[in-house]
Design brief:
binds uridine-diphosphate-N-acetylglucosamine; 14 helices; 4-stranded mixed β-sheet; globular; alpha+beta; 31% helix
Amino acid sequence: MEQYAIKGGKALEGEVTIAGAKNAALGILAAAIMTDEKVVIENVPDVSDTRTLLAAIQDIGATVEHLDEHTVSICGKGIVGDDTLSVDGKNIRKIRASYYLIGALLGKYNYANVALPGGCDIGTRPIDLHIKGFETLGADVKIIQGGKIVARAEKLVGKHIYLDTVSVGATINIMLAAALAEGKTTIENAAKEPHIVDVANFLNTMGANIKGAGTDVIRVRGVSRLHGAEYSIIPDQIEAGTFMTMAVATRGNVLIKNVIPKHLEAISSKLIEMGATVIEYDDSVRVMADGVLKPTQIKTLPYPGFPTDMQAQMAATLALSDGTSIVTESIFENRFRYVQELCKMGADIRVEGNTAIIHGVEKYLGASIVASDLRAGAALVIAALAADGFSTIDDIKFIQRGYENFDEKIRGLGGDIEIVDSEREFQKYKLKIG
Ligand code: UD1
């Protein structure tokens, strides 16, 4: 099984270019099948989650063409939207965003039949709000044997929907279905993440009429059809944040290119509190740190609050600060599974309920550790790069779900990381690196 082999201790230096946002891409690729015309999408990150979603839409009859590494052309004309339609490919149950196909197919064909979503195991991840939204629009939604969701409607009619919890997935999914519903839908208490705005902008480019994305009230006036479009996905806020924390944890100096600095404000301000320097340019940020890092408090919140998807990477960095930090996870209930792995590397972290109490240590020590989910995996890579000595990280498939060419980008910054798939290869790597 493939592992990352890492020798830590080097300050990362240089430039790295951020890929398109995975979570925006997943919504946009699903939305692309809502027209029978050709859609060309640029800046699609080449990660396993997007590959899985593209394979799923191909399986149901969409034409998918890779125009270059990051540009995909999609045509949903070949999808047959009758009772034979079923999304249940080999890997689709492994990704969470398969749920966007429910909203997209229901909007277009008034019918969807999709395997229940999987994704990272970071606690209970219900989709009751998505279902409630579809039902309010007039669909009958059932979970049938074999773990599938079947949603069916005579027609979808716009309504007023209040989300009890701020949910990224439910906001996007309801927006998708409502785009082709009859009349006006209002989504209240909507999520405001940058990728919500990106999916709304994409739908509008296809002819939808969506206003207010990025605020907590989104108004969708249904249209009768969507048309072809060309669109470029926004840069990935979380990939950028991951490299920002990596620069700080290794006391490096990294220019992170192709970002929207505004999307990074919550992360930048915490890194500045820790004593790092963050310089914003138009579409890049430079992050530098040296010497002692200061502790701080973090609480994850929906955007514009501190993103839960950056919690683990930040905690891995705070574990090297001089003092005690408190990290509170308020979105997901099981998002501290990386802590025991960091403790194997010498971290001093105690978890109490949804809070991690982090007593900073001077150094991590290299160890054999295992990624439990995507962002947890990224946090372990950060720790291993900052550690004294060699580490191996198992289950890197989780990391590859959301980071494009992660090891290559880190090597570009001078980090010692390689993919190995046996103990022998690891020993060879150790001899080579010395
Ligand atoms: C999305 C992101 C994920 C990110 C998360 C929060 C994608 C593919 N994934 O996940 O990377 O960590 O947003 O920013 O974009 N909830 C319910 N009922 C529902 C839906 C959600 O109770 O029907 C709860 C969840 O359990 C959680 C909270 O709402 O406590 C927020 O979840 P949500 O924003 O929906 O996250 P995801 O869409 O799963």
